[in-house]
Amino acid sequence: MLRISKLTDYGTLILAHMAGLPGRLHSAAELAEALGLGLPTVSKVLKTLGRHALVSSQRGAHGGYVLTRAAEQITVADIIDALEDQPFGLTECSASAGVCSMESDCRIRDNWLRINTVVRQALQSVTVADMVHPDAPSPLARGLVSNEPASHRMHGPARLGSRAAATSLAACIPTPRADDQEI
Question: What is the extent of the structural domain holding 127?
Fold first, then answer.
């Protein structure tokens, strides 16, 4: 099962909340209360996001955290890279070369690498700004709809690297609803 960690989910939620109220400082306590998360968890996530330059902090009585870039410039891939313990990869060999004993003779490695690339591109195409406005058309879906059967999209030259492949992936991603959150 492909799943991000709770900390990555919380990090996305925290950044989306901050992006929804741009230009102001957010204390860890305020974020914890607004999002219904524990203060130690929010503090841990904010420190990690700060180490990866997604937020910066200002000390003092009126201090807090602020996004270091516009929400349109922070991608879901950036958040995953900051908060997951290991490099992004659907399989061992797609995360790092040389970790699988079968890598040199593997007949399916190239396809896993192509699939990994498409998923990574999808994560790079969705920004924190997109997460703030889930009702807006997804960048994955805007203008990328294809009438080509899935069986044709999965075969042929460079198909997995194509926009049609991203569309077929986007069709599998449900639109988030407020009542779907288990936070």
Answer: 6-136
Query: Rounded to a whole number, what is the largest CA-CA distance in the chain?
Result: 60
Region of poorest pLDDT, from 30-44, 86-100, 115-129, 149-163: 149-163
Please count the structural domains in the chain: 1
pTM: 0.71
Q: Backbone phi, then psi, for 94, in 5-degree steps?
A: -85, -15
Burial of 153 (C-beta count, 10 Å sphere; 0-12/13-18/19+): middle
Residue 84 has pLDDT above 70, yes or no: yes
Query: E strands within 45-86?
Result: 55-58, 64-67
Structural element, H or E, at residue 10: helix 6-20
Closest alpha carbon to 54 in 39, 38, 70, 40: 70
d(CA 138, CA 84): 24
Q: What is the CATH number of the domain that holds 34?
A: 1.10.10.10
Q: What letter would DSSP give residue 84? A: S
